[in-house]
Every structure is written in structure tokens, then in C-alpha cells.
Amino acid sequence: MKRGSLFILGLILLVILPVGSAFGDERTLKLESIVIESYDAPGDITYADGSTVNWEIRGSKFSMEGFPRKAYAPETWPIDLFGKNPENRETLQAFGINGRFLRQGYNTIDIIPGVGEGDDWVEKAIALPGRVKMFDFWVWGSNYNFSIEAHFMDYRGITHRFELFAAGDERQYAGSIKFEGWKNMFIDIPSWVMQSQSHKPNYEGLSLVKLVLRTHPQEAVDNFYVYIDNLKVLTDFHESFYDGFELSEPSKLEQIWGTEGGVE
After folding, report:
1. Residue 54 belongs to a domain
2. To which H or E segment does residue 43 belong?
3. 263 and which of 29, 183, 245, 254 could share a cystine (Cβ 3.0–4.6 Å)?
4. Interval 126-163: pLDDT, tens
5. Which CATH number goes with the domain that contains 74?
6. Alpha-carbon 182 to chain mean position
7. What span, in angstroms and rounded, lies between the C-alpha atoms of 136 and 216?
8. How many CA atoms within 13 Å lie on the side-chain side of 146?
9. Helical segments of the chain, H only
10. What are the distances in angstroms from CA 260 to CA 155, 247, 250?
11. What are φ and ψ of residue 261, in 5° steps?
């Protein structure tokens, strides 16, 4: 091929490649890190309808009477997250769990979001924004051989259970909180978890159903404490633009059809 032809072909490629990048937006990301729950105060966050999120804990069959117990620990935080002396230290808290079981085994404590209080409390999953890429939170352990997991529900009603990993500690098995003090626990949400559909609007998010603390059958369970803090997601807010895009937005649907048009 002549040098002139090669030069023309090169110019054509330079024109085509940027265009392909601009319109091939399946891999385009608009990532944001969002704190879902700070645990800095009871009822510190709300659902989309304005109702307050209240966390409750439920122990499995062999829980001692009156247990598990929950509490908000004042002026408590992971130093790796906030530093040794943060300016807002007086407002920082963590969510504490005190568990006791009558016997060893695969005992569990569910940490569940919901609405209401006391006998009127009802569990209610927390809708997570965007398409979640990673979920993480902080756990304080006291070297018990326990594990922790997160349960999510997709738009089809299918529940996905994931054990989290301690950041920077490859020695730990999945979900293990057999460590001392605060560690960041995380899970990368697999691509096979459905967070979109083929119809418009494409976006269909995940909901956080609960966290589950699980004991190992050979570990002591007569009296232990675990604290959690700062639930967070790394999420993708990118949506492909098309002519008439606004007609699939919730605000536009509500304006046209009202809340009965399927907009919650």
C-alpha cells in the first residue's frame, strides 16, 4: 500500500475511534461513594417516603432471655476512617450488639432495618442508589471466630447473600471477623446480580435487607460484643441518554400519571 493511502487510512481511524468511544457507553461509569448509614444517632436516616430507619436485632433459637441487646456507643469511631481526634468526635457513634447464647453452634444475630418501634416495628429493606459496585462497612471484633454477611434483594425479589472480606487481610476467610479492633469489611457486587432491565428505564436497584452475624460451632458464645459503623456503597449513576430520555424519569412519570402510575 502506498504511503499516501496509509496516511488517509490513519486519518479515517482517528475520526472513527473517538466517535466509537462516545457512543459505546455500555462501559461508561459515573461513580460516587455514598454513606447509607452512619449510625451516629438512632433514626439518623430516612426512607424515600420520609419514614425513619430504625435498626433492630433478632437472635436465633438459643439466644438467652433478654438477648441480643443493642446500643449506640457514644464518641466511638474507627481511627483509620476519621483519625484520632476528629472535629465532630462528640457526634460520632457506632452501633453495638451484645449477644449471649445458651449453647455453641451456628447461632445468628440478624441486624435489620425497618420502620416503627417496639411491637409496631416492621422490617423494611433500604433501597440503594444507582448500580452498586461495592458495599462496605466497619466492624469492631474482639477475636471471636464469628463471621458477618450482607443480604441484598434485586428488583425481581431474589435475595443475594454475600460474605464480606476484611480489607488488607488476605489471611482471613470470607466473612471472618476473627480480629481485634476495627477493620473495614467489603464486597464487590458481581456483575451477574441484576441491577438493570432491557426496558426503559433500565435502572433497577438493589435493596439492603439485613446484615447477619454468625457464630462458629466451636467458639464461645456466652457473652460477646460486636460494633458496626459507616455503611457505604460505591455506586454508578450513569444512564445512557436517548431522545425522549425524560419520559422514563420518575419525576416525569409522576407528573404525567401520578403516584398510581407505578412511581413509589
Report:
1. yes
2. none
3. 254
4. 999 888 999 999 999 999 999 999 999 998 889 999 99
5. 2.60.120.260
6. 18
7. 22
8. 26
9. 3-23, 79-82, 250-257
10. 19, 16, 12
11. -85, 15
